[in-house]
Specification:
By secondary structure, the chain is α/β, with parallel strands linked by helices. It has helices at about 15-25, 35-45, 60-75, 100-120, 145-165, 185-190, 195-205, 215-225, and strands spanning about 5-10, 30-35, 50-55, 80-85, 125-130, 170-175, 235-240. The protein is globular, with a radius of gyration of 17 Å. The termini are far apart.
Length: about 250
Amino acid sequence: MSARTALITGGTSGIGKATAELLHSRGYRVAVTGQRPEGVAQARAELPEDVLVLQADARSLAETDKVVSEVGARFGSLTTLFLNAGVSRPMTLATADEAAYDEVFSVNTKGQFFTLAKALPLLTDGASVIVTVGIGATRSLTGNSVTAGSHGAFLGMIPTLALELAPRRMRINAISPGFTDTPMTRASLRAQSDDVAAVMAAIAEKNPFGRLGVPADMARTVAFLASDDAAYITGQEIMVAGGAGLAI
């Protein structure tokens, strides 16, 4: 059997990086993308040397074309596509900013959709596509309406995309992390509070499991969805949140 291969967008830190490390440890050939030059440089230093690390802006279709071309040249085909690139820009109706709004939808909705479209020729029959959505798409989180809407828009596409991909036995599923301790989460909280640790501790205390999610929780779920054990699962959303949002 040919080697398993994976492209992970937003793979230079947090959930994406943890997934790259896990899949690589399981024998996958892995490529990751990241937008920030410093994050890309750090990932190149910290990930295994045979992981392909590419700088790309998910908003740019030209850069997506370049990523697909480079991955195709290196791997030939893909068995897994993890669409994990995303941004969060907290805002309310009173603080709404048009540029931030456009950025969020350009990355989280347009970028995800066109990365899948452009990577389609590389995907093998039976390939697995996994999309990071987030619990906020279907739960209320203060100041999260725009980010939630951008993820919810893609979540709404998944049943139709699942049927579109089914003739080739390709699967597409979403994971929706709850509050997860990642660099992006910490940066978002830092913009709202001087005591990030206290805010995170308070959120953890309210979780039914009494802790925050960690990137490894999400990575293991992605690895399952990428595996043959999930070969008959498509069009689904899996909440990975320790029971957050279940209480009335």
